[in-house]
Design a protein that fits this description.
single chain, rod-shaped, Immunoglobulin-like
C-alpha cells in the first residue's frame, strides 16, 4: 500500500485551558450585564424628553408664518414710501421748472409776424402837475330867477394819453361871496362815485353843475338864508382832488 502522507497531529485542549476560557467568558458576560444595568439605572435616573404634540407644531408654524407676514408688510410699506418719496421729488423738480404748476403751453408762431397782436400796456394815471383845472359859468350875469350853470374843465397838458378820475368823489363846485362860504356841491352830496376817463394830450373833459341859487353848510345842515341878488357878485372855484382852479366871477340879479 502507498502511504498518502501523515496527518498532522491535532492539538488537544487541556482541562485547565478549557476552564480558563469558560471563566473569561463568564467574566465578560457578567461585565456586559453590569454595564447594561448601570446604563439602565442612569437612564432611569434622568427624565425622558417627550415629543411635542401636533398642536404645538401647528402653533409654532403659525408664529413663523405670522412673522413672515409682518416682514413682508414692512418690505411693502418701505417700497411704497420710497416710491412716494421719489414721486414727490419728481413733482418738486417739475414745480421748480414751472412755478405756476401748470403744463407748458406750446405756442405756434404766426405765419405773418405783422399780424401778431400784443397786449397794449395800460394807460398811466395823469400827473396832476400836468393837468389844468378851469372854472367858468355859462353867462357872466344872471337875472332874478335864472340859475347859473357852473362848469369845470380838465385839460391834459402832458405829451401822452393818461387817465384821470373825474367822478363826484374828486370834484367840488364851490361858490363864495368874499370870505363867506355860500355853497359846496359836497355838503349835501347823496353819493360819492369814481369815474375814470382817458384824456388825450391837449384834450379836455368838462363837467357841468346847475346851481339852484341855494345856500349850504358842511354836513348838509339846514340853512334858511339865500344868496342875495340885486347885482351882487360871486366867485366860483372848481376843485379836482388837490388841484384847484382860479376863481370865475359872475353876477346875480
Amino acid at each position: 500500500m502507498v502511504n498518502r502522507g501523515k496527518q498532522p497531529p491535532r492539538a488537544r485542549t487541556s482541562p485547565s485551558a478549557k476552564g480558563t476560557a469558560r471563566t473569561a467568558g463568564a467574566a465578560r458576560t457578567a461585565g456586559t450585564a453590569r454595564t447594561a444595568g448601570a446604563n439602565r439605572s442612569k437612564s432611569a435616573g434622568r427624565p425622558q424628553r417627550r415629543r411635542p404634540s401636533p398642536a404645538v407644531y401647528r402653533r409654532r408654524r403659525l408664529v413663523v408664518f405670522g412673522a413672515l407676514l409682518v416682514v413682508l408688510a414692512m418690505l411693502v410699506a418701505g417700497a411704497v414710501a420710497m416710491s412716494s418719496s421719489l414721486a414727490s421729488k419728481a413733482d418738486s423738480a417739475a414745480s421748480k421748472n414751472d412755478p405756476s404748476g401748470a403744463a407748458p403751453v406750446v405756442q405756434i408762431p404766426s405765419a405773418d409776424p405783422i399780424a401778431a397782436t400784443t397786449t397794449p400796456s395800460p394807460t398811466p394815471i395823469c400827473d396832476l402837475n400836468l393837468v389844468t383845472v378851469t372854472a367858468s359859468t355859462d353867462q357872466p350875469a344872471y337875472a332874478a330867477g335864472q340859475n347859473p350853470v357852473l362848469s369845470m374843465k380838465i385839460t391834459n397838458g402832458g405829451a401822452a394819453p393818461c387817465q384821470v378820475n373825474v367822478g363826484t368823489s374828486q370834484m367840488e363846485f364851490l361858490v363864495m361871496s368874499g370870505e363867506d362860504r355860500i355853497f359846496s356841491s359836497k355838503d349835501c352830496q347823496a353819493k360819492s362815485e369814481d369815474l375814470v376817463k382817458q384824456i388825450d394830450p391837449g384834450k379836455s373833459e368838462t363837467a357841468n353843475f346847475p346851481w339852484q341859487r341855494n345856500r349850504t353848510s358842511e354836513g348838509c345842515g339846514a340853512v334858511s338864508a339865500k344868496p342875495g341878488g340885486g347885482g351882487a357878485y360871486y366867485t366860483f372855484k372848481a376843485v379836482l382832488g388837490n388841484k384847484a382852479s382860479t376863481k370865475a366871477i359872475f353876477q346875480l340879479g
